[in-house]
Every structure is written in C-alpha cells, then in structure tokens.
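User: Can you help me understand a structure? I only have the sequence.
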Amino acid sequence: MNKLSNLFQLLAEKNRLKIIFALEDKALSVTEITKITELSQPLASFHLKALNEAGLIKKFRKSSFVYNKLVNKNLLLLIKSFLNFSAEQFEENENPDSFYFPFPPCK
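Assistant: Let's start by predicting it. Here is the structure, written out as tokens:
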C-alpha cells in the first residue's frame, strides 16, 4: 500500500505530469523537455531525478546527450484513466469544486 501511496504522491505534482506526457512518444533530452513543458532546466532536472529514483523513467546516454524515457507506457494509460474519471465526475457534479474527498480519509 505504501508503494501505491508514494506513486500517487509523485504523480500529484503537475510538472511531473507534464514531463511524463512529454515523454509519451519518444525519449527526450532535458533541453527538449524544457522546450515542450516550458519548465526551467533546474526544475525539469529536479523532477526528472524524482521520476528516475521512483523507477518511472530511465536515463541513457547517446553520444554526449543524456536522454530520458518512460519505463512503462502503462503509466500513461493509468493517468489518462484518472483524467477520464475526473472529467466524468466533474460533468456529473457540474462544478469541479463540488468534488469532495475527505482528508484524511480514515477519519
């Protein structure tokens, strides 16, 4: 259960989601990621490190560049499923602010 919780915490950061979607089609260098996501290089590198440490992306060297790629494309399917779920939930409630999730959920 901790692994799943850690995964959701990792994916709760919108800049990490931007990076994951940028890597959907192909491996990219940090420079390419910063252009696509409009993140600064230090910020992109910070989030890439977190994604790499979690095992969600893999780094590899090609000549003088380091590229990043998704380890498993199923991660994108999971994220897209949650996006579809949230869109349906907001449609039903009409107002996104009306979607209520008690925190902490165990109380």
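Now, to help you interpret it: The radius of gyration is 16 Å. Helices lie at 2-11, 14-22, 30-37, 41-53, 74-93. Let me know which part you'd like to focus on.
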